[in-house]
Specification:
By secondary structure, the protein is an alpha+beta fold. The chain is built from 3 helices and 6 strands; from the N terminus they run E-E-E-H-E-H-H-E-E. Helix 1 packs across helix 3.
Length: about 140
C-alpha cells in the first residue's frame, strides 16, 4: 500500500477549453496534477507493478471562515459534510487524482478497479490518497 498527502486545499478537475481547435487544460489543474505525481514519487518512487489497482481518496476541504464558530466546530468534528456551493463535485476530485497519477503510479487509469472517495471539512485541508495492488 502506498499513502501520500498533497497539503493545502484540494483542487478539482475542470473542463478543458478549446482554442483554435486544440483542447487546453487550465494551468491550475496541470500544476495540481504535477503536485499529485510528485507527492506519489516522494512516497513510492516507482510505478505499481500489478494490473489491478485500488484507490482511496480523501479530500479534506477548508472550513469556511465566514461560518459561525458553532458551525465551524461541527464541521471540524465531522458533523457537517461539504455539498453544493464551492465544495466541488466528488467525481472531479477523483478525476484529478487519476489524471495526475496516470503514467506515474500506473500505466493507465483503466487499471483502477476499486475506487473510494470522500470529502470532508478539516482544519488542515489536504488531499490524501491511498493506492494498493489488488492482484496480478
Amino acid at each position: 500500500m502506498i499513502e501520500f498527502e498533497v497539503p493545502g486545499a484540494p483542487e478539482t478537475w475542470k473542463r478543458t477549453t478549446s482554442f483554435r481547435g486544440r483542447r487546453l487544460t487550465p494551468k491550475k489543474v496541470r500544476d495540481y496534477e504535477k503536485a499529485i505525481a510528485l507527492m506519489f514519487m516522494a512516497a513510492k518512487g516507482r510505478r505499481c507493478e500489478s494490473g489491478s489497482i485500488g484507490v482511496e481518496i480523501y479530500a479534506a476541504l477548508p472550513i469556511p471562515a465566514s461560518w459561525s464558530r458553532q458551525k465551524q466546530r461541527q464541521a471540524a468534528v465531522g458533523d457537517l459534510r461539504p455539498w453544493g456551493g464551492n465544495s466541488g463535485d466528488l467525481d472531479n476530485y477523483a478525476k484529478i487524482v487519476m489524471d495526475g497519477l496516470n503514467g506515474v503510479a500506473f500505466h493507465d487509469d483503466s487499471q483502477v478497479v476499486s475506487l473510494h472517495a470522500e470529502k470532508w471539512y478539516s482544519v488542515n485541508p489536504c488531499l490524501r490518497v491511498k493506492l494498493w495492488e489488488i492482484g496480478t
